[in-house]
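Hello everyone,

My group is preparing for a crystallization screen and wants a predicted model to guide construct design. The compound we'll soak is flavin-adenine dinucleotide. Before spending weeks at the bench, it would help to have a computed complex in hand. I've included the protein sequence and the ligand's SMILES below. Output in structure-token form would be ideal because that's what our pipeline reads.
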Amino acid sequence: MKAPRFSYVRPESLDSVLELLAEHEGEARILAGGQSLMPTLNMRLSEPRLLIDINRIDALKGISLEDGTVRIGALARHAEVLESPLAAEHLPLIADAMPHVAHVAVRNRGTFGGSIALADPAAELPACAVALNASFVLASTRGRRTVPARSFFHGLYETELAEDELLVEARIPAIAPGYRSAFMEFARRHGDFALAGVCCHARVEGCVLRDVSLACFGGEDRPRFAAAASAAAEGRAWSEEVKDAVKAALGGELEPEGTFHASAETRVHLAQVLAARAVDRMLAAG
Ligand SMILES: Cc1cc2nc3c(=O)[nH]c(=O)nc-3n(C[C@H](O)[C@H](O)[C@H](O)COP(=O)(O)OP(=O)(O)OC[C@H]3O[C@@H](n4cnc5c(N)ncnc54)[C@H](O)[C@@H]3O)c2cc1C
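Reply:
Good plan to model first. Here are the tokens for the complex, ready for your pipeline.
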């Protein structure tokens, strides 16, 4: 199918983007990499009157490190993050996850901000942001606000973004000394959206885990900070007993939907196995 008729603008400044969003509130869509938006239009799942192409806005580009926080501009392409030495050194979880995001062609155009704003529940980057306790900077003509990733995702493709707001950048704490992370997912084919996935981040002292952060994605309507599973591992030496406690906690807190691709039970089972493997891998990496 072909996309419905729409108008198209490619502003040269951030202020122009925000003014256009305010002026056409509810009728405009941001066009970033277009990898999800364009198929949606072609399938007529969405019919915006105006597309605002943000690709010329330099203020939304780049990856940098400031005071222990990595800033990823909304327009940073997946390929750029994948190849970034800064991300590899300071955000190993995201570096680990990025090869699982789609395929080369999609990664060349798709953007970090597009993935966060889209909020696909099976996407890798929103879950990494939740595990790492990142925050997002949102801008509109009303001003700027910073929203924690753990409260940004409201549900299936629903976020904290208001219709006149633009996601400007993600701010992610750089990995601190003593911390490690691991990413694992199960997808039917490499590059597909995951049926289940787990992000793990913790301070490791010998085989004792502290400040544990487990996030799961792929089964529910949004990425979940697995609070009970994280608490089950907190301050404990990793053992079969703790592994079982983490699995039991996940079984209690995850509420995935069963679908054609996998039942709810299968998705919980996958998350449990992946979580245990992620911690094993994190400890083995030391
Ligand atoms: C074949 C295929 C396989 C894929 N596999 C995966 C996968 O395995 N894992 C995965 O995570 N993703 C996958 N994707 C999605 C891909 O990562 C997209 O790039 C991403 O979801 C959207 O990024 P984009 O820059 O293309 O955004 P766009 O398509 O341009 O926009 C997506 C949505 O976000 C909004 N938006 C974009 N940027 C902003 C912003 N800065 N502020 C506010 N709103 C904004 C748009 O208005 C639109 O509603 C796949 C896509 C394809 C086509």
